[in-house]
Amino acid sequence: MPHLSIEVIAAVLFAVALLHTFAAKLFERLSHRYPGHAGLFHLLGEVEVVFGFWAIVLVLVMALVSGGDKALAYAESRQYTEPLFVFVVMVIAASKPILQVVAAAVNGAARLVPIRTSLATAWLGLAAVPLIGSAITEPAAMTIAALMLAPQVFRPDVPERVKGLALGVLFVNVSIGGTLTSFAAPPVLMVAATWNWDSAFMLATFGWKAAIAVVVNATIAVYFLRKHLGQQSLPPQPTVADAVPTILVLVHLGFLAAVVALAHHPVAFLGLFLMFMGVTQAYERFQNPPIIKEALLVAFFLAGLVVLGGMQQWWLQPIVSGMSPQVLFLGATVLTGFTDNAALTYLGSLIVGISEEAKYSLVAGAVAGGGLTVIANAPNPAGVALLKRGFADESIGASELLLGALLPTLVAMAAFAML
Fold it and tell me: Cβ(283)–Cβ(276) under 8 Å?
């Protein structure tokens, strides 16, 4: 049957894309070895390009097998709100006024902690900012944390294994740190309305457990980082001439809050984004260069995941629905490494008569495994795009991320299973 054959082809291309993410670092090395084709190898080595590239291949194959009209109809039927939102919130959250506010808050809090300032700021970046993601959404928290930690933790002179652990902690903490509310974490958002999970329920059922795991993970990471962190934590406070006016800071915070509030309405938040870009142009002297390229690559990655992932339901849903709650917790954690955790919980929300215990197991496993791979959680590509320059070959290998995320993932699993 043509429909079945397309689904099988989509599953094969999905598997190829997964393998491609693990081979991305190899392509970066080939770009140095064969400079004549460096551009092509560098493109294939960009993790953010992988799923978008194979999604285009899928649409082309669909056009050949089923016809161009059906291929376009499928591509246009997909929901691209999340990629668009992540693009917008990344650019806004990375603006100088927002970062200046966060840096001032982190520096102020670090001075109150009776340990070396550099350790305190690294700990706050790995713990406090991911938890703030429950209010400002996980993609915004990932962007802010990555930009804060890049010059301090993710430097070329820090050992790769230590950076890998810090990266794994950041990704896992962002994934579980958004569970204090019902709207900040994509996998929670997918089931919150269907299962009537409000923010009070999330805080009482998941949030406090996640907060404990976040603190433990950040502490472990900083312990291994302690020998590699200098005395300076963040760049010096801006001078009076460089400081962003308070009114402009409030305007930027207002844009961020409005975009978060309208996260499910792309027409509205894209309109706000255009207004935001106008403001940044009008007051360019108080801005950093916008991270348009990085944000576009992340959006391209997520859009590709939407297209490829949309045809994986035929094999994923039977697996999820056939597991007992106990097995489902472990299974969801593992499966999240192979597919976006929001897609996984969405499939779970379609299961009729799913028990309360199974609901908890599915979501707990999905968020706990959100740091295992770059595709496991929507904000992860943003972190990769902003931090990869600090790694060897300016590329983050899938195996590096997996190894770095194992320990914090186990801590998160223990918190959700035992507390």
Answer: no
